[in-house]
Amino acid sequence: MADAPRIVRDPATMRAEVIANRTAGRRIGFVPTMGALHAGHCSLVERAAAECDDVVVSVFVNPTQFGPGEDYARYPRSLEADAALVGRLGVRWIHAPLADDIYPPGAATRVVVDGPATPFEGRARPGHFTGVATVVCRLFQAVPADVAYFGAKDWQQTLVVRRMVRDLGLPIEIVVCPTVREPDGLAMSSRNAYLDPDERFRAVALFESLEAATAAWERGAEVAVIERAMRAALVARGVAVDYASIVDSETLGSPVVGREAVALVAGRVGATRLIDNRVLAGRGSSA
Fold it and tell me: Which of 14, 27, 129, 134 is 20 to 30 A away from residue 60, measured at CA?
């Protein structure tokens, strides 16, 4: 049985331990999370453990990426259970800083990313990606790992993080891992715990909309036709649609001939907001 991971709250202590182990020649993998861990997070940890000598998982519910009226106060917090879960996977450290560790009193600096942070989630949740970029940058300072692992479910977030790393010249590799799904296709998410049985049944509409998009894209359908089919699949299950779009997978602009596209969906099932996506192979016409 693997040893229980060591919980480290102080960022300076965490940084010193990572640097010491990297100096000794050990490759360090990092999985940033907000806790309430599930099989999707475990897949990231398993990938990190397969490719690295030691793994750090951070658990921090970041207040600056939640907007007014969002679910910061009720977001699930389960550090003990999280530690037990990833401990079985061989995680060496859990970095669980307090809010004042990440945002010291008087802190006045934020990381603002334009470009991929602007549309979709950036429009629906003003300030969200500033909070994401800022906390990820701070966590990369506390955990100066060789490589960090993120899930593809938050596709736009992965673009924002990669852009920040590239623009600021941060010395860390970013690996994006496939979305892990329930047997019926619903993407695993900590927010799925909010869904009652009826809402859980209806939430599979996000996956169904992506299935419809993939089939239509492969048939060569026009983008506008595909987007209407995505919306129809969501509305049919009673999902309030925020967006259902086909865009270029890197720029989030209009699809480009011969390049990968991505189908993005977001909507509310009851009081719970869910997102999902599917990468689409490049095709000869963007229509």
Answer: 27
Query: For tokens 């690295």, what's the residue?
Result: 52
**Torsion over CA: 196, 246, 211, 45 (sign):** negative
Residue 287 has pLDDT above 90, yes or no: no
Mention the CATH class of domain 6-177. Answer: alpha beta
- The segment(s) of the chain belonging to CATH 3.30.1300.10 are 190-279
For residue range 222-249, what is the model confidence (pLDDT) as tens digits?
A: 999 999 999 999 999 999 999 999 999 9
* Residues identified as active-site: 41
190-279 placed in CATH 3.40.710.10 = no
Q: How far apart are CA 235 and CA 228, in angstroms?
A: 10
